[in-house]
Amino acid sequence: MANTHSVPLLIDGQDVQHESTFDVISPATGELCWKAVSASADDAIKAVESAQAAFSSWSQTKPSTRTAILLKVADILEAKAEKYADYMMAEMGADRGAAQFFVTPLAIAMCRDIAGRISSVCGSVPVVAKEGQSAMVWKEPYGVVLGVVAWNAPYVFGIRSAATAIATGNTTVIKSSEVTPRCYYELGKAFKEAGLPDGVFNVVACRPQDAPMVVNTMIEHPAIRKVNFTGSAATGRKIARTCADHLKPILMELGGKNTAIVLEDADLGKAADECLAGAFLNAGQICMGTDRIVVHTSVMSKFTEILQQHLESFSKSSPGPPTVSSAASKQRLADLVASALSSGARFIAGPSTQPSSPRNLPPHHPHGCFPRNPALPRRILWSARHPLNLHHRLRSHHASEFHRLWSPRRGIQ
């Protein structure tokens, strides 16, 4: 999908091009997809000021108008789902299944859901303590909301960050990931096509080394009233500090470390399938994926056998090894594999040699990692006599958590 055209910024409804660009390299092929314009501090300020200028009018629009626009956005995404999936596949190496049949449909459903909730955003009349007094609570838009978004589910994060702000009468600037600038630009164009006024939704991208400067410039701008961040805990801390310095609220979703717990009465075949789907969807690059599996000791041997069979079948049916986002990501994962082996783990699945491609890594599944091993946050399998009592050992101080349990007797599947 190589293209000599540079992906522009989207400011005040207009494409912004200039000579400062960066290369967008496909993880799947290692080749240039296209170049993208790299925003300067001046570009960032212009984007914020565009959103600020659009706010006074947009904040007064009727809920029915906002609902209609978001529903139209969902229709556009649905009609062009294959094209949007192509951009994901090119920029982040996603497979067709994850791009077209998971991320894009989820974004479409989310957009329609947000549209359906607009009419329910209303105030209240609370009871007061003294006679002769009354009170009213009404909700007003913040103003300009800055969204700093991740790369691994661009349409979902774009809808969640931008559509929620727009639905409630705010305007927004999205600072897209440098990995997927075209995905976010095309999402912004879909909103424009749906009839969103210029300036309500702005999109900027920049070179990785310029990101702190661009993000801080926007946070420090008086017009930014709230920040929405999706990304790593390390970056989240830095952004939160900047927001705190300027007394601006921030909503963050940070990386997840998640556990599947398989109890003694579980349907082991179903549990194995679901664990693998959670572990390797989007090459495992997803915040609510299966990072570790804790199995009741009484069924550990049988579950391991079933899991190994299903993983071998999964690997044979896949067109090739999953593609991770960068060579650095592959190396980090390979280092975790080596660390687990050196700490006494054994693999129920995983190749003895690594592929030559700098961004492809076959599925690995270690067994028996000690809970405090550095490889614990990744894909591991270990047993316990009382899995439900392990929550304190499973908790991470650096990430949010999702847990999934299989136990039909307890009504949990």
From TrEMBL:
Domain Aldehyde dehydrogenase as annotated: residue spans: 19-352
Keyword NADP: yes
Region feature Disordered, mapped onto this chain: 347-370
One Pfam short name: Aldedh
InterPro entries the UniProt entry points to: Ald_DH/histidinol_DH (IPR016161), Ald_DH_C (IPR016163), Ald_DH_CS_CYS (IPR016160), Ald_DH_CS_GLU (IPR029510), Ald_DH_N (IPR016162), Aldehyde_DH_dom (IPR015590), Aldehyde_DH_Superfamily (IPR050740)
Domain of life: Eukaryota
Active-site positions on this chain: 253
SUPFAM superfamilies according to UniProt: ALDH-like
GO biological process: gamma-aminobutyric acid catabolic process
Any GO MF annotation of the entry: succinate-semialdehyde dehydrogenase (NAD+) activity
Keywords: NADP, Oxidoreductase
PANTHER family xrefs: ALDEHYDE DEHYDROGENASE FAMILY PROTEIN (AFU_ORTHOLOGUE AFUA_8G05520) (PTHR43353:SF2), SUCCINATE-SEMIALDEHYDE DEHYDROGENASE, MITOCHONDRIAL (PTHR43353)
Protein family according to the UniProt entry: Belongs to the aldehyde dehydrogenase family.
Protein name in the entry: Aldehyde dehydrogenase domain-containing protein
Organism: Didymosphaeria variabile
Lineage of source species: Eukaryota, Fungi, Dikarya, Ascomycota, Pezizomycotina
